[in-house]
Write a structure and sequence with these properties.
Chain lengths: 201, 354
């Protein structure tokens, strides 16, 4: 085998090994190419627009915006949009679970009771004292990702579908947070969760 | 180049190219996967699951983390020829390849946790669950194990990797029990669950004598760090809060915005951050039935969120929120005594937000 043949074989080896490396890592490179941008050009959206699209598509309002009775029956109280369970609304203890009926909810759909106790939906508006105004983007991302309050505190409670929302990409979670920081701040101190009636404090 | 040398070089070229490509691939994929068995991690001498490799140094922090009464043993392995960068006494930097093991026993060995510093400066976390016959411990799923039976009859929870990161990555260094204050030779005789220092166990002085603390300020050896409590009880209480709470509640991590800081800084011991950020400060948490609650109400442990939450195991109230299922009665009594007896002179700033 002469030197020219060996050099040609070397180049061929380099081509195949290099090609294999590029193929193996294409997913990572594709992710890197979209992760750092502030816009998603192919969707024609800014980050905040993307956040609004997600918030209004995945049902955040269903539990975090209280329902009120209106001419059309129960409807979202948009003056309190995404501010969670109203602090002025004092509730009697939830009815005991019976038979297959394990879960009950207040008429606002902002207070829920079940085997875990009673939970009240959080204030997602940017109020600094009672909402997410003092939170960092990382606090929010880690809350959803780790399913714990601020990423390392108490577990998120039902009916928050955190197990599914944990599948959001970091980009989408940051987009949701960015949008939530743009909505009107509402001062509303949501009560903390209550233990089950027969449970420990 | 001579024709013979050219031919030799040409013969080697394919191997060199292939080797370079393989190295490149290996680097792109990160560190090798962790061994399936604890006995293959380097903790023990080869062929043993009981004899610790003499290169692994045992240590015992003076303010241990409460883990439902588990008895613990810990070791560090510093790569040969390397040393810890100890210039900053509040954030020792560990060389690449440093490994830690922490063994939890409840009558028998149940779990051994593992941390390793990687080339990029990050740490990886894993845990190994012991077989009931003690023959070896097997790598647990990253999701953790909800219930592992112990000899005492209670169930032990093996943490998920996410829970490991929740506690270890909320502070300036992910290594929580191995630093200037935790390994100070001036150990606190009143620390809850203080551990006996065994033969061969290393503290800061022993590490320095072995040349393993590079750049350690001399004053830390002549005047070893200790918490400046106004009484032995306060020193122990603040030490407990440092060892058990400051991983999350400190002034620089993700929860800094809460303004609750149980950290202790060797480099700047005064003023006491724990007192300033907790005593008389309004809590976001309210004790059931109370309109508002202080984090620590001087003289009133029953009205203090700190004592209430330490004594709770309801998931939404309990502190700490993970890593334990049983209330630490000894520490709770200490903290209640401290609030009741040592804080009477502290100005009460009722209602002030942190």
């Amino acid at each position: 085998m002469n030197a020219r043949t060996i050099a040609a074989l070397s180049l061929t080896t380099l081509f195949f090994v290099g090609g294999a490396w590029l193929l193996l890592n294409r997913g990572e490179r594709a992710a890197a190419s979209t992760g750092g941008a502030t816009d998603i050009p192919e969707l024609g959206m800014t980050r905040v627009e993307r956040g609004k699209y997600l918030v209004t598509s995945v049902g955040c309002d269903d539990c975090h915006t209280p329902l009120k009775s209106g001419a059309n029956g129960p409807e979202p109280d948009l003056a309190r949009r995404l501010s969670g369970h109203p602090d002025f609304m004092k509730l009697p203890p939830a009815p005991a679970a019976a038979g297959p009926w394990m879960v009950s909810a207040a008429a606002t759909l902002t207070a829920w009771s079940g085997p875990w106790g009673t939970s009240f939906t959080a204030n997602l508006t940017p109020d600094p004292e009672t909402g997410l105004g003092s939170w960092t983007e990382q606090n929010f991302v880690q809350t959803i990702r780790k399913r714990r309050h601020m990423g390392s505190g108490r577990p998120l409670l039902p009916p928050m579908p955190a197990a599914f929302y944990a599948n959001f990409s970091d980009y989408d979670l940051k987009a949701i947070f960015a949008y939530l920081q743009t909505i009107p701040a509402i001062k509303n101190r949501v009560p903390q969760p209550l233990p089950p009636l027969d449970g420990a404090q | 180049m001579q024709p013979a040398a050219q031919r030799r070089a040409a013969r080697r070229l394919p191997w060199l190219v292939t080797a370079a490509a393989l190295v490149s691939c290996a680097q792109a994929e990160g560190p090798a996967a962790l061994p399936e068995l604890l006995s293959e991690t380097g903790l023990f001498t080869p062929g043993s699951v009981g004899e610790i490799d003499p290169l692994n140094l045992p240590f015992a922090p003076q303010y241990p983390l409460w883990s439902d009464g588990a008895s613990k043993r810990r070791w560090i392995r510093i790569p040969q020829g390397a040393a810890i960068d100890a210039r900053n006494p509040d954030a020792w930097q560990f060389p690449e390849g440093t490994r830690f093991w922490k063994e939890f026993s409840f009558g028998r060995r149940v779990e051994t946790r593992y941390m390793e510093r990687l080339a990029d400066g990050s740490f990886r976390y894993a845990t190994y669950v012991w077989s009931e016959d003690g023959r070896d411990a097997r790598l647990a799923s990253a999701a953790g194990v909800a219930n592992v039976e112990t000899d005492g009859g209670s169930a032990h929870e093996v943490p998920s990797e996410s829970d490991c990161r929740a506690c270890h990555e909320g502070r300036r260094s992910p290594v929580l029990g191995f630093g200037a204050l935790q390994l100070s030779p001036d150990r606190d005789p009143n620390a809850p669950h203080r551990e006996r220092v065994t033969d061969g166990s290393v503290d800061m002085a022993a590490l320095a004598a072995r040349g393993l603390l590079e750049g350690l300020p001399d004053r830390l050896l002549s005047d070893p760090p200790r918490i400046a409590g106004r009484s032995p009880r306060e020193r122990a209480a603040l030490g407990y809060l440092f060892g058990n709470c400051s991983g999350c509640h400190n002034g620089e991590g993700p929860l800094a915005a809460l303004g609750l800081d149980f950290d202790q800084r060797v480099s700047a011991p005064e003023p006491p951050r724990a007192l300033r950020s907790a005593v008389g400060k309004l809590s976001r948490f309210s004790i059931p039935g109370a309109e508002q609650t202080l984090r620590v109400a001087p003289g009133e442990p029953q009205a203090s969120a700190l004592a209430f939450r330490m004594g709770s195991r309801f998931p939404a109230s309990r502190m700490p929120p993970l890593g334990t299922r049983l209330v630490d009665d000894e520490a709770l009594e200490l903290v209640r005594d401290w609030i009741e007896n040592d804080l009477a002179e502290v100005p009460n700033t009722h209602g002030e937000r942190p």
